[in-house]
Write a structure and sequence with these properties.
There is one protein chain. This protein is α/β, with parallel strands linked by helices and 481 residues long. It has 22 helices and twelve strands. The strands form three sheets. Strands 3-2-1-4-5-6-7-10 form an eight-stranded mixed sheet, with helices on both faces. Helix 9 crosses helix 14, helix 9 packs antiparallel against helix 16 and helix 20 crosses helix 21. The chain is globular and about 70 Å long. The termini are far apart. The structure holds 6-phosphogluconic acid. The site of 6-phosphogluconic acid has 13 residues, from helix 9 and helix 13.
Length: 481
């Protein structure tokens, strides 16, 4: 599959170079920040885009950005402006606003017309929309898009799911607009139904874990080592020279080094320590629990945001109990980087583990190597590590923790243990780093303690267990004989 995609990407690039790519004429509904950025990006790549928005003036204004952008007017004029079979990209908030757009469009569209949702929709809702649209003779694609407004404007990562034949109709313009990594577009179709949105959801779950671990490293440097924000920025910037090189570490350095124009203080020292969340991280954890796949690093990240939001309660508790014992800590920045890297591998192992489990459960035949390749550029979690991760999957590794290529990075588990131990001992917050270490220890413990769970279950509920000397058969213990 890797070779196929690479070949396809090269062919597409070649066609573009030769100027033979057919320019598309797409529709785009919703010209908010993301919609108008993507429209401009498509126009820049030579594609024509008819724009529609409930706010007709906003659509007309957005169309002024490029000659290839049109604002035909009301929804009827918009639909009529598109060549048949039509292809319409929708960038409106997921849920009710999206359903309202689909309902309006489906009254005007004809069999074979295509609707593609590029919002952060919940994958089960996408599955339902695929079915409902197909019943109306329409084709539907659910696509995750990552990279924020900047990405949409200059090259996002796009994860498509739904009808594969429908995908072929919008693939070229979207791959033209998407980010690319060494010529490979970070935009592809990965599976049927809600697969695209599921993959985007897990991207965000991983994004949560990644960000939380960066925040914990920041906390260890700020409260343990007593470094100022700018100095912490230097540590992060230093990590950009190694395997931690990633968009999130890069912008973490920038966030640390930036000064507040109003006060001249470090911007970070002015930002309130309560994190927002729109819900995709929480969805990842809930879905992973449904699938029985471990996601302790992401769960720790979601919980840390939940705790962060309870600022007044935390302040009141601090009044009662005092702050945790925070004493100075000698922090070796290189060792902290090794710890962060090992923890990151473990978080990614969990994220891809959920994707693998979803693929088996929903029969999606997901190609984990291809998904990792699609995340190498354009998206929020883009990093040099994803290139290595995709190679590990391409070489047949079922997961990351057991992949030989990840072993040098996972050797950082020694530094991770020291970091977590120091953090706990000094009263510093490190729940995601700790979750990663616990996951690693759990994964490499040949003899665990679930025999006790099984014994208890059998003792109180006769649930049965397997004997070590006769596996494969459920038996009961002698408790009630
Ligand atoms: C992306 C981001 C994007 C958005 C998150 C933020 O890939 O471009 O993930 O989708 O920034 O949804 O999520 P929270 O508000 O939950 O942090």
């Amino acid at each position: 599959v890797f070779r196929c995609i690479t070949k396809r990407a090269r062919q597409a690039q070649q066609r573009r170079i030769e100027g033979k790519t057919a320019m598309a004429h797409l529709g785009l509904v919703g010209v908010g920040v993301m919609g108008s950025a993507l429209a401009q990006n498509l126009a820049e790549k030579g594609h024509k885009v008819s724009l529609y928005d409930r706010d007709l003036e906003r659509a007309a204004k957005a169309a002024e950005a490029a000659e290839a952008l049109l604002a035909p007017g009301d929804v009827k004029a918009f639909v009529a402006s598109l060549p048949r079979p039509r292809a319409i990209l929708v960038l409106v908030p997921s849920g009710k606003p999206l359903d309202a757009v689909i309902d309006t469009l489906s009254l005007l569209l004809e069999p074979g017309d295509l609707i593609a949702d590029l919002g952060n929709s919940f994958y089960q809702e996408t599955e339902a929309r695929v079915t409902a649209c197909e019943a109306r003779g329409l084709v539907y694609l659910g696509m995750g898009i990552s990279g924020g407004a900047e990405g949409a404007r200059h090259g996002p990562a796009i994860m498509a799911g739904g009808s594969q034949t429908a995908w072929a109709r919008v693939r070229q313009p979207l791959q033209d607009a998407a980010a690319s990594y060494q010529g490979d577009p970070c935009c592809d179709w990965y599976g049927p139904g809600g697969a695209g949105h599921f993959i985007k959801m897990m991207h965000n779950g991983i994004e949560y874990a990644d960000m939380q671990m960066i925040a914990e490293a920041y906390g260890i440097l700020r409260d343990g080592a007593g470094l100022k924000a700018a100095a912490i920025g230097d540590v992060f910037a230093g990590w950009m020279d190694g395997p931690l090189n990633s968009y999130l570490v890069e912008i973490a350095a920038e966030v640390c080094r930036t000064k507040d124009p109003a006060t001249g203080s470090a911007m970070l020292d002015i930002i309130l320590d309560t994190a927002g969340q729109k819900g995709t991280g929480r969805w990842s954890v809930i879905e992973a629990l449904h699938l029985g796949a471990p996601v302790s690093t992401m769960a720790a990240a979601v919980e840390a945001r939940n705790v962060s939001a309870q600022k007044p309660a935390r302040q009141a508790m601090e009044q009662t109990w005092g702050p945790p014992k925070i004493t100075p800590l000698a922090v070796d920045a290189a060792a902290l980087g090794q710890a962060l890297l090992a923890a990151k591998i473990i978080a990614y192992d969990q994220g891809f583990g959920v994707l693998r489990r979803a693929s088996e459960t929903f029969d999606w035949a997901l190609d984990l190597g291809a998904i990792a390749r699609g995340w190498r550029a354009g998206c929020i979690i883009r990093s040099v590590l994803l290139d290595e991760i995709s190679e590990a999957f391409d070489k047949g590794s079922p997961d990351l923790m057991s992949a030989p290529a990840m072993r040098p990075h996972l050797n950082g588990h020694v530094a991770l243990r020291r970091t977590v131990g120091d953090a706990l001992g000094h009263g510093l917050q490190a729940p995601a780093l700790f979750a990663a270490l616990a996951a690693f220890d759990g994964a490499r413990t040949g003899l665990g303690t679930a025999n006790m769970i099984q014994g208890l279950r059998d003792r109180f509920g006769a649930h049965g267990f397997e004997r070590t000397d006769a596996p494969g058969k459920k038996v009961n213990g002698p408790w009630h004989s």
